[in-house]
């Protein structure tokens, strides 16, 4: 693997639940617990897992939209968690986000020109009205919209068009990394394909790196070079998309893939039903967090948390008894 653009090491995020007369911490939610991975320039790393596993929190901690509780986030060698003021502001040009809900992520009081052009003004990329108009028009045409759309408001667009506006806003500051936080989950299936194809074209055109967070495993397989699987705040497996989908090594990954419907009724596949529910992140299980639901769990799994161990090809699994 080439030198990483983004290196995450031991990233954690705990949310305090407070109560009582003095609002003291009474419990703590372990949303992200020791997440580590690398992302190369021009690469797409998919992040999958059940709702509440910490995918979105991980992405937002990397961007410092949420302050991490611990760990390191190295972007191009700089520790993002230690930057403040102008240094952090300058780095935000390099890292952007596309939000999940195109209906909630755009300010309904602003025109598209104001939404996309705001970042140009903040970062000094356009100073005159004409420069803003020209750049917003260029960005809108890049994402498949018309230049005259800049004078409209978000409510005048469909969901797919709004997400294109969100993509144009992310591109405005010419970033190298974009966190895609479930960017197509709120869209119709036909529109999803259009947005995914647009993201792939933009990646090739501008050399972008994507951290692609999603629920839909088929979408992740299509767009990702590598895939990280999260369970209850931890990465349990990370591998190339082909290796992970063809030969999952962690029991949780196998169960996830087995749950994906196959459109061909003639193809039979063994269904894997996990016992129990996802544990409470306030009091996660000891040892391997998955051992309470794992079909191959052994006594050791309840006592020791497995480390993420890599093979010669760079694929890694956190399991005492991988498949």
Report what the structure shows.
The protein is α/β, with parallel strands linked by helices and 323 residues long. It contains nine helices and twelve strands. It has helices at 55-62, 85-92, 112-122, 129-142, 159-171, 189-206, 217-223, 241-246, 251-258; strands spanning 6-19, 24-39, 44-48, 70-75, 78-79, 95-98, 177-181, 209-213, 226-231, 234-240, 309-310, 316-317. Strand 1 (6-19) and strand 2 form a beta hairpin. The longest helix is centred in the middle third of the chain and has 18 residues, at 189-206. The two termini are 25 Å apart.
Q: Which structural class matches the secondary elements?
A: alpha/beta
State the helix count.
9
- Please give the order of strands in the largest beta sheet: 6-7-8-3-9-10-12-11
- Cα-atom radius of gyration: 21 Å
Helix content range of the residues, please?
Answer: 25-40%
Residue windows where pLDDT falls under 50 for at least 5 positions: none
Question: Judging from the principal axes of the Cα atoms, what is the shape?
Answer: globular
Q: Mind summarizing the main beta sheet?
A: 8 strands, mixed
Distance between the termini: 25 Å
Number of strands: 12
- Order of helices and strands, N to C? EEEHEEHEHHHEHEHEEHHEE
Mean pLDDT: 91
Strand content: 15-25%
């Amino acid at each position: 693997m080439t030198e990483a653009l983004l290196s995450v090491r031991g990233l954690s995020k705990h949310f305090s639940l407070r109560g009582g007369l003095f609002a003291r911490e009474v419990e703590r939610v372990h949303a992200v617990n020791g997440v580590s991975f690398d992302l190369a320039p021009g690469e797409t790393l998919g992040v999958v897992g059940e709702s509440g596993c910490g995918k979105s929190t991980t992405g937002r901690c990397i961007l410092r939209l949420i302050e991490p509780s611990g760990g390191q986030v190295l972007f191009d060698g700089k520790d993002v968690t230690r930057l403040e003021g102008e240094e952090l502001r300058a780095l935000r040009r390099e890292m952007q986000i596309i939000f999940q809900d195109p209906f909630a992520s755009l300010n309904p009081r602003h025109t598209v020109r104001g939404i996309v052009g705001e970042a140009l003004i903040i970062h000094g990329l356009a100073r005159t009205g004409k420069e803003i108009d020209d750049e917003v028009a260029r960005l809108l045409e890049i994402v498949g919209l018309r230049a005259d759309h800049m004078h409209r408001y978000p409510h005048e667009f469909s969901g797919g068009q709004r997400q294109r506006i969100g993509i144009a806003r992310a591109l405005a500051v010419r970033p190298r990394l974009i966190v895609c936080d479930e960017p197509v989950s709120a869209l119709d299936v036909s529109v999803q394909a259009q947005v995914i194809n647009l993201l792939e074209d933009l990646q090739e055109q501008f050399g972008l790196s994507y951290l692609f967070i999603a629920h839909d495993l088929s979408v992740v397989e299509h767009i990702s070079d590598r895939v990280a699987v999260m369970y209850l705040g931890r990465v349990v497996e990370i591998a190339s998309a082909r290796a992970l989908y063809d030969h999952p090594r962690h029991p949780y990954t196998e169960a996830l893939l087995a749950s994906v419907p196959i459109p061909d009724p003639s193809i039979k596949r063994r269904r894997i039903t996990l016992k129990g529910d996802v544990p409470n992140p306030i009091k996660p299980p000891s040892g391997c967090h998955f051992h309470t639901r794992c079909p191959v769990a052994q006594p050791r799994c309840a006592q020791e948390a497995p480390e993420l161990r890599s093979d010669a090809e760079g694929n890694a699994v956190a399991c005492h008894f991988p498949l």
